[in-house]
Prior knowledge:
Helices cover about 25% and strands about 25% of the residues. It contains eight helices and 20 strands.
Amino acid sequence: xxxxxxxxxxxxxxxxxxxxxxxxxxxxxxxxxxxxxxxxxxxxxxxxxxxxxxxxxxxxxxxxxxxxxxxxxxxxxxxxxxxxxxxxxxxxxxxxxxxxxxxxxxxxxxxxxxxxxxxxxxxxxxxxxxxxxxxxxxxxxxxxxxxxxxxxxxxxxxxxxxxxxxxxxxxxxxxxxxxxxxxxxxxxxxxxxxxxxxxxxxxxxxxxxxxxxxxxxxxxxxxxxxxxxxxxxxxxxxxxxxxxxxxxxxxxxxxxxxxxxxxxxxxxxxxxxxxxxxxxxxxxxxxxxxxxxxxxxxxxxxxxxxxxxxxxxxxxxxxxxxxxxxxxxxxxxxxxxxxx
Length: 340
Ligand code: EPU
Protein backbone atom coordinates (compact mmCIF):
# COMPACT_ATOMS: atom_id res chain seq x y z
CA UNK A 1 0.00 0.00 0.00
CA UNK A 2 1.20 3.52 -0.79
CA UNK A 3 -0.22 6.84 0.38
CA UNK A 4 0.32 10.03 -1.62
CA UNK A 5 -0.98 13.55 -1.08
CA UNK A 6 -1.86 16.17 -3.73
CA UNK A 7 -1.95 13.43 -6.37
CA UNK A 8 -2.86 14.17 -10.01
CA UNK A 9 -5.65 12.00 -11.44
CA UNK A 10 -5.01 13.14 -15.02
CA UNK A 11 -3.67 9.76 -16.12
CA UNK A 12 -6.40 7.95 -14.20
CA UNK A 13 -9.38 9.17 -16.18
CA UNK A 14 -9.88 8.49 -19.88
CA UNK A 15 -11.08 12.05 -20.62
CA UNK A 16 -7.62 13.13 -19.43
CA UNK A 17 -8.98 15.91 -17.20
CA UNK A 18 -6.73 17.37 -14.56
CA UNK A 19 -7.91 16.93 -10.98
CA UNK A 20 -5.74 16.92 -7.88
CA UNK A 21 -6.78 14.51 -5.12
CA UNK A 22 -5.99 15.60 -1.57
CA UNK A 23 -5.15 11.99 -0.60
CA UNK A 24 -4.53 8.99 -2.82
CA UNK A 25 -3.96 5.45 -1.60
CA UNK A 26 -2.90 2.63 -3.87
CA UNK A 27 -3.74 -0.89 -2.70
CA UNK A 28 -1.68 -3.41 -4.63
CA UNK A 29 -2.61 -6.56 -2.73
CA UNK A 30 -6.24 -7.02 -1.77
CA UNK A 31 -5.33 -9.85 0.61
CA UNK A 32 -4.08 -7.09 2.95
CA UNK A 33 -7.25 -5.03 2.71
CA UNK A 34 -8.15 -5.28 6.40
CA UNK A 35 -4.65 -4.22 7.49
CA UNK A 36 -4.71 -1.42 4.95
CA UNK A 37 -7.99 -0.22 6.42
CA UNK A 38 -6.51 -0.21 9.92
CA UNK A 39 -4.15 2.44 8.59
CA UNK A 40 -6.87 4.26 6.64
CA UNK A 41 -9.25 4.33 9.63
CA UNK A 42 -6.51 5.76 11.85
CA UNK A 43 -5.93 8.60 9.41
CA UNK A 44 -9.39 9.28 7.99
CA UNK A 45 -13.02 9.37 9.08
CA UNK A 46 -14.21 7.13 6.25
CA UNK A 47 -17.89 7.30 7.16
CA UNK A 48 -17.82 11.08 7.14
CA UNK A 49 -15.97 11.09 3.82
CA UNK A 50 -18.63 8.75 2.41
CA UNK A 51 -21.45 10.98 3.65
CA UNK A 52 -19.82 14.03 2.11
CA UNK A 53 -19.06 12.21 -1.14
CA UNK A 54 -15.36 12.70 -0.57
CA UNK A 55 -14.44 9.04 -0.96
CA UNK A 56 -13.74 7.72 -4.43
CA UNK A 57 -12.62 4.30 -5.67
CA UNK A 58 -10.97 4.56 -9.05
CA UNK A 59 -9.95 1.97 -11.66
CA UNK A 60 -8.85 3.30 -15.03
CA UNK A 61 -11.40 6.12 -14.80
CA UNK A 62 -13.11 5.13 -18.04
CA UNK A 63 -16.58 5.94 -16.80
CA UNK A 64 -15.91 9.03 -14.71
CA UNK A 65 -16.12 12.76 -15.16
CA UNK A 66 -13.86 14.55 -12.71
CA UNK A 67 -15.87 17.75 -12.63
CA UNK A 68 -13.59 19.90 -10.44
CA UNK A 69 -9.96 20.94 -10.36
CA UNK A 70 -9.55 19.47 -6.89
CA UNK A 71 -10.99 16.43 -5.17
CA UNK A 72 -10.90 17.39 -1.55
CA UNK A 73 -11.05 13.84 -0.27
CA UNK A 74 -9.59 10.33 -0.41
CA UNK A 75 -9.12 8.30 -3.58
CA UNK A 76 -8.55 4.55 -3.35
CA UNK A 77 -6.88 2.92 -6.32
CA UNK A 78 -6.82 -0.88 -6.42
CA UNK A 79 -3.97 -2.09 -8.62
CA UNK A 80 -4.06 -5.80 -7.66
CA UNK A 81 -4.13 -7.79 -10.92
CA UNK A 82 -4.47 -11.34 -9.68
CA UNK A 83 -6.38 -14.02 -11.59
CA UNK A 84 -7.25 -17.39 -10.03
CA UNK A 85 -8.60 -20.30 -12.00
CA UNK A 86 -11.06 -21.83 -9.54
CA UNK A 87 -12.24 -24.57 -11.91
CA UNK A 88 -13.19 -25.03 -15.57
CA UNK A 89 -16.24 -22.81 -15.03
CA UNK A 90 -15.13 -20.16 -12.54
CA UNK A 91 -12.44 -17.48 -12.58
CA UNK A 92 -11.77 -15.14 -9.65
CA UNK A 93 -10.25 -11.90 -10.89
CA UNK A 94 -8.95 -8.97 -8.84
CA UNK A 95 -10.33 -5.48 -9.36
CA UNK A 96 -7.16 -4.05 -10.95
CA UNK A 97 -7.01 -6.57 -13.82
CA UNK A 98 -7.42 -4.75 -17.15
CA UNK A 99 -10.79 -5.66 -18.70
CA UNK A 100 -9.63 -6.30 -22.25
CA UNK A 101 -6.73 -8.45 -20.97
CA UNK A 102 -9.33 -10.62 -19.24
CA UNK A 103 -11.33 -10.96 -22.46
CA UNK A 104 -8.16 -12.13 -24.23
CA UNK A 105 -7.20 -14.49 -21.41
CA UNK A 106 -10.66 -16.06 -21.52
CA UNK A 107 -10.60 -16.49 -25.27
CA UNK A 108 -7.17 -18.14 -25.15
CA UNK A 109 -8.18 -20.45 -22.32
CA UNK A 110 -11.62 -21.52 -23.56
CA UNK A 111 -13.74 -19.49 -21.15
CA UNK A 112 -16.14 -18.26 -23.80
CA UNK A 113 -18.74 -15.53 -23.88
CA UNK A 114 -16.94 -12.32 -22.92
CA UNK A 115 -15.68 -11.72 -26.47
CA UNK A 116 -18.66 -9.45 -27.23
CA UNK A 117 -17.24 -7.14 -24.54
CA UNK A 118 -13.78 -6.88 -26.14
CA UNK A 119 -11.98 -3.52 -26.07
CA UNK A 120 -14.18 -1.95 -23.41
CA UNK A 121 -11.78 0.36 -21.56
CA UNK A 122 -11.38 -0.03 -17.81
CA UNK A 123 -10.77 -2.64 -15.17
CA UNK A 124 -12.49 -5.77 -13.87
CA UNK A 125 -13.38 -3.89 -10.67
CA UNK A 126 -15.26 -1.27 -12.65
CA UNK A 127 -17.10 -3.73 -14.89
CA UNK A 128 -20.01 -4.52 -12.54
CA UNK A 129 -20.52 -0.89 -11.45
CA UNK A 130 -22.28 0.16 -14.66
CA UNK A 131 -22.87 -3.45 -15.74
CA UNK A 132 -20.80 -2.98 -18.91
CA UNK A 133 -22.57 -4.15 -22.02
CA UNK A 134 -22.03 -4.26 -25.75
CA UNK A 135 -23.10 -6.21 -28.84
CA UNK A 136 -25.90 -8.08 -27.14
CA UNK A 137 -24.05 -9.11 -23.96
CA UNK A 138 -23.91 -7.62 -20.45
CA UNK A 139 -21.28 -8.58 -17.89
CA UNK A 140 -23.99 -9.52 -15.37
CA UNK A 141 -24.64 -12.70 -17.40
CA UNK A 142 -21.18 -13.94 -16.36
CA UNK A 143 -21.00 -12.77 -12.76
CA UNK A 144 -21.39 -15.44 -10.10
CA UNK A 145 -20.60 -13.29 -7.07
CA UNK A 146 -18.47 -10.33 -6.05
CA UNK A 147 -16.10 -10.07 -3.13
CA UNK A 148 -16.35 -6.60 -1.59
CA UNK A 149 -14.97 -4.67 1.33
CA UNK A 150 -17.92 -3.19 3.21
CA UNK A 151 -16.90 0.25 4.46
CA UNK A 152 -19.79 0.39 6.95
CA UNK A 153 -19.25 -2.97 8.63
CA UNK A 154 -15.49 -3.11 7.92
CA UNK A 155 -15.85 -6.71 6.78
CA UNK A 156 -15.04 -8.62 3.64
CA UNK A 157 -18.33 -9.86 2.21
CA UNK A 158 -19.77 -11.53 -0.87
CA UNK A 159 -22.63 -10.18 -2.94
CA UNK A 160 -24.49 -12.68 -5.08
CA UNK A 161 -25.46 -11.80 -8.63
CA UNK A 162 -29.02 -11.06 -7.45
CA UNK A 163 -27.80 -8.85 -4.61
CA UNK A 164 -25.90 -6.75 -7.15
CA UNK A 165 -29.29 -5.65 -8.65
CA UNK A 166 -28.02 -5.48 -12.19
CA UNK A 167 -29.97 -3.78 -14.95
CA UNK A 168 -29.12 -1.77 -18.07
CA UNK A 169 -25.98 0.29 -17.24
CA UNK A 170 -26.88 0.00 -13.57
CA UNK A 171 -26.19 -1.95 -10.37
CA UNK A 172 -26.30 -1.54 -6.59
CA UNK A 173 -22.84 0.04 -6.79
CA UNK A 174 -24.26 3.10 -8.55
CA UNK A 175 -26.64 3.67 -5.62
CA UNK A 176 -24.46 3.10 -2.58
CA UNK A 177 -20.80 3.80 -2.08
CA UNK A 178 -20.39 1.51 0.90
CA UNK A 179 -18.68 -1.28 -1.07
CA UNK A 180 -15.26 -1.54 -2.62
CA UNK A 181 -15.16 -4.23 -5.29
CA UNK A 182 -12.18 -6.47 -4.53
CA UNK A 183 -12.66 -9.52 -6.71
CA UNK A 184 -15.17 -10.60 -9.32
CA UNK A 185 -16.06 -14.29 -9.64
CA UNK A 186 -16.99 -15.01 -13.25
CA UNK A 187 -18.95 -18.10 -14.21
CA UNK A 188 -18.81 -19.69 -17.65
CA UNK A 189 -21.51 -22.28 -18.21
CA UNK A 190 -23.46 -23.31 -21.28
CA UNK A 191 -21.80 -21.11 -23.86
CA UNK A 192 -24.03 -19.84 -26.62
CA UNK A 193 -22.65 -17.43 -29.15
CA UNK A 194 -24.49 -14.12 -29.19
CA UNK A 195 -24.63 -12.55 -32.63
CA UNK A 196 -27.99 -10.89 -32.10
CA UNK A 197 -26.47 -7.50 -32.82
CA UNK A 198 -26.96 -6.78 -36.48
CA UNK A 199 -23.54 -5.29 -37.22
CA UNK A 200 -21.92 -8.37 -35.73
CA UNK A 201 -23.81 -10.90 -37.86
CA UNK A 202 -23.30 -8.67 -40.91
CA UNK A 203 -19.55 -8.74 -40.37
CA UNK A 204 -19.46 -12.54 -40.02
CA UNK A 205 -21.60 -12.96 -43.16
CA UNK A 206 -19.54 -10.51 -45.17
CA UNK A 207 -16.27 -12.30 -44.44
CA UNK A 208 -17.91 -15.74 -44.43
CA UNK A 209 -16.71 -16.41 -40.92
CA UNK A 210 -18.09 -19.22 -38.78
CA UNK A 211 -19.92 -18.30 -35.59
CA UNK A 212 -16.98 -18.95 -33.26
CA UNK A 213 -15.83 -16.96 -30.21
CA UNK A 214 -12.56 -16.06 -31.98
CA UNK A 215 -14.45 -14.61 -34.94
CA UNK A 216 -16.89 -12.73 -32.72
CA UNK A 217 -13.88 -11.24 -30.94
CA UNK A 218 -12.38 -10.21 -34.29
CA UNK A 219 -15.66 -8.65 -35.39
CA UNK A 220 -16.18 -6.69 -32.17
CA UNK A 221 -12.62 -5.37 -32.25
CA UNK A 222 -13.10 -4.31 -35.87
CA UNK A 223 -16.47 -2.63 -35.28
CA UNK A 224 -15.35 -0.80 -32.15
CA UNK A 225 -12.19 0.44 -33.84
CA UNK A 226 -14.32 1.79 -36.69
CA UNK A 227 -16.55 3.97 -34.60
CA UNK A 228 -15.22 4.47 -31.11
CA UNK A 229 -12.19 6.67 -30.40
CA UNK A 230 -9.29 5.16 -28.46
CA UNK A 231 -9.02 7.05 -25.16
CA UNK A 232 -5.20 7.08 -25.37
CA UNK A 233 -5.50 9.09 -28.58
CA UNK A 234 -8.65 11.13 -28.00
CA UNK A 235 -10.04 11.53 -24.47
CA UNK A 236 -13.54 10.12 -24.01
CA UNK A 237 -15.66 7.96 -21.70
CA UNK A 238 -17.47 5.81 -24.27
CA UNK A 239 -21.18 6.50 -24.56
CA UNK A 240 -21.82 9.75 -22.77
CA UNK A 241 -25.59 9.24 -22.46
CA UNK A 242 -27.72 6.21 -21.70
CA UNK A 243 -30.06 5.00 -24.40
CA UNK A 244 -33.41 6.34 -23.12
CA UNK A 245 -36.25 3.98 -22.30
CA UNK A 246 -39.69 5.37 -23.13
CA UNK A 247 -43.29 4.19 -23.00
CA UNK A 248 -44.48 2.51 -26.18
CA UNK A 249 -47.37 4.97 -26.40
CA UNK A 250 -44.93 7.86 -26.68
CA UNK A 251 -43.00 5.91 -29.30
CA UNK A 252 -46.04 5.91 -31.58
CA UNK A 253 -46.29 9.70 -31.46
CA UNK A 254 -42.58 10.04 -32.20
CA UNK A 255 -42.71 7.54 -35.06
CA UNK A 256 -45.49 9.57 -36.67
CA UNK A 257 -43.14 12.55 -36.72
CA UNK A 258 -39.87 10.64 -37.31
CA UNK A 259 -40.53 7.36 -39.12
CA UNK A 260 -36.82 6.48 -39.17
CA UNK A 261 -36.42 6.70 -35.38
CA UNK A 262 -34.29 3.75 -34.22
CA UNK A 263 -36.05 1.78 -31.48
CA UNK A 264 -35.63 -1.55 -29.74
CA UNK A 265 -38.79 -2.85 -28.06
CA UNK A 266 -38.15 -4.16 -24.52
CA UNK A 267 -41.66 -5.46 -23.78
CA UNK A 268 -45.23 -4.40 -24.57
CA UNK A 269 -44.92 -1.24 -22.53
CA UNK A 270 -41.37 0.00 -22.98
CA UNK A 271 -38.97 0.69 -25.83
CA UNK A 272 -35.31 1.68 -25.83
CA UNK A 273 -34.22 4.39 -28.25
CA UNK A 274 -30.75 4.98 -29.71
CA UNK A 275 -29.53 8.18 -28.05
CA UNK A 276 -26.84 8.39 -30.76
CA UNK A 277 -29.54 8.61 -33.43
CA UNK A 278 -31.41 11.34 -31.52
CA UNK A 279 -28.23 13.41 -31.08
CA UNK A 280 -27.15 12.80 -34.66
CA UNK A 281 -30.56 13.99 -35.86
CA UNK A 282 -30.02 17.25 -34.01
CA UNK A 283 -26.96 17.62 -36.28
CA UNK A 284 -24.39 17.28 -33.50
CA UNK A 285 -22.17 14.62 -35.06
CA UNK A 286 -18.68 16.12 -35.44
CA UNK A 287 -19.81 19.33 -33.68
CA UNK A 288 -17.00 21.20 -31.97
CA UNK A 289 -17.58 23.24 -28.83
CA UNK A 290 -14.59 25.22 -27.50
CA UNK A 291 -11.94 22.54 -26.81
CA UNK A 292 -14.29 19.55 -26.76
CA UNK A 293 -16.79 18.04 -29.17
CA UNK A 294 -19.04 15.26 -30.41
CA UNK A 295 -17.15 12.42 -32.08
CA UNK A 296 -17.42 12.54 -35.85
CA UNK A 297 -18.25 8.83 -36.26
CA UNK A 298 -20.57 8.30 -33.28
CA UNK A 299 -22.76 11.06 -31.86
CA UNK A 300 -23.14 9.31 -28.52
CA UNK A 301 -19.48 9.84 -27.66
CA UNK A 302 -18.19 13.20 -26.43
CA UNK A 303 -14.48 13.80 -26.86
CA UNK A 304 -11.88 16.01 -25.29
CA UNK A 305 -9.53 17.59 -27.80
CA UNK A 306 -7.47 19.91 -25.62
CA UNK A 307 -9.50 20.89 -22.55
CA UNK A 308 -7.63 20.66 -19.25
CA UNK A 309 -10.75 20.62 -17.06
CA UNK A 310 -14.23 19.10 -17.38
CA UNK A 311 -16.41 22.24 -17.50
CA UNK A 312 -16.64 22.44 -21.30
CA UNK A 313 -17.74 18.80 -21.60
CA UNK A 314 -20.51 19.45 -19.08
CA UNK A 315 -21.57 22.61 -20.94
CA UNK A 316 -21.70 20.68 -24.22
CA UNK A 317 -23.66 17.88 -22.54
CA UNK A 318 -26.26 20.41 -21.32
CA UNK A 319 -26.55 21.91 -24.79
CA UNK A 320 -27.17 18.45 -26.28
CA UNK A 321 -29.69 17.53 -23.57
CA UNK A 322 -31.59 20.77 -24.09
CA UNK A 323 -31.66 20.40 -27.89
CA UNK A 324 -32.81 16.75 -27.76
CA UNK A 325 -35.47 17.66 -25.19
CA UNK A 326 -36.82 20.48 -27.36
CA UNK A 327 -36.88 18.40 -30.54
CA UNK A 328 -37.97 14.97 -29.27
CA UNK A 329 -39.33 15.67 -25.76
CA UNK A 330 -36.83 13.16 -24.37
CA UNK A 331 -34.54 13.82 -21.42
CA UNK A 332 -31.14 12.22 -21.97
CA UNK A 333 -29.38 10.93 -18.89
CA UNK A 334 -25.60 11.21 -18.54
CA UNK A 335 -24.07 7.74 -18.31
CA UNK A 336 -20.63 8.22 -16.64
CA UNK A 337 -20.47 9.03 -12.96
CA UNK A 338 -19.89 12.72 -12.24
CA UNK A 339 -17.45 13.35 -9.38
CA UNK A 340 -17.80 16.79 -7.78
N1 EPU B 1 -26.70 6.00 -34.61
C1 EPU B 1 -26.85 7.08 -35.47
N2 EPU B 1 -25.94 8.09 -35.36
C2 EPU B 1 -24.93 8.06 -34.46
C3 EPU B 1 -24.81 6.97 -33.58
C4 EPU B 1 -25.72 5.94 -33.69
O1 EPU B 1 -27.75 7.14 -36.29
O2 EPU B 1 -24.15 9.02 -34.44
C5 EPU B 1 -27.63 4.86 -34.78
C6 EPU B 1 -26.88 3.68 -35.38
O3 EPU B 1 -26.92 3.71 -36.77
C7 EPU B 1 -27.61 2.48 -34.82
C8 EPU B 1 -28.13 3.00 -33.47
O4 EPU B 1 -28.06 4.42 -33.51
O5 EPU B 1 -28.70 2.16 -35.62
C9 EPU B 1 -27.34 2.44 -32.31
O6 EPU B 1 -25.98 2.83 -32.45
P1 EPU B 1 -24.78 1.85 -32.05
O7 EPU B 1 -25.02 0.53 -32.64
O8 EPU B 1 -23.51 2.54 -32.38
O9 EPU B 1 -24.91 1.64 -30.51
P2 EPU B 1 -25.21 2.69 -29.38
O10 EPU B 1 -26.64 2.63 -28.97
O11 EPU B 1 -24.73 4.01 -29.84
C10 EPU B 1 -24.66 1.06 -27.41
C11 EPU B 1 -23.88 1.15 -26.13
C12 EPU B 1 -22.40 1.03 -26.42
C13 EPU B 1 -22.14 -0.30 -27.06
C14 EPU B 1 -22.99 -0.40 -28.33
C15 EPU B 1 -22.92 -1.78 -28.93
C16 EPU B 1 -25.14 2.53 -24.57
C17 EPU B 1 -25.30 3.86 -23.94
N3 EPU B 1 -24.17 2.41 -25.48
O12 EPU B 1 -24.27 2.17 -28.22
O13 EPU B 1 -21.70 1.08 -25.17
O14 EPU B 1 -20.79 -0.49 -27.36
O15 EPU B 1 -24.38 -0.17 -28.04
O16 EPU B 1 -23.63 -2.67 -28.13
O17 EPU B 1 -25.89 1.62 -24.27
C18 EPU B 1 -20.60 2.52 -23.63
O18 EPU B 1 -21.46 2.23 -22.80
O19 EPU B 1 -19.67 3.31 -23.35
C19 EPU B 1 -20.68 1.98 -24.98
C20 EPU B 1 -19.82 2.32 -25.94
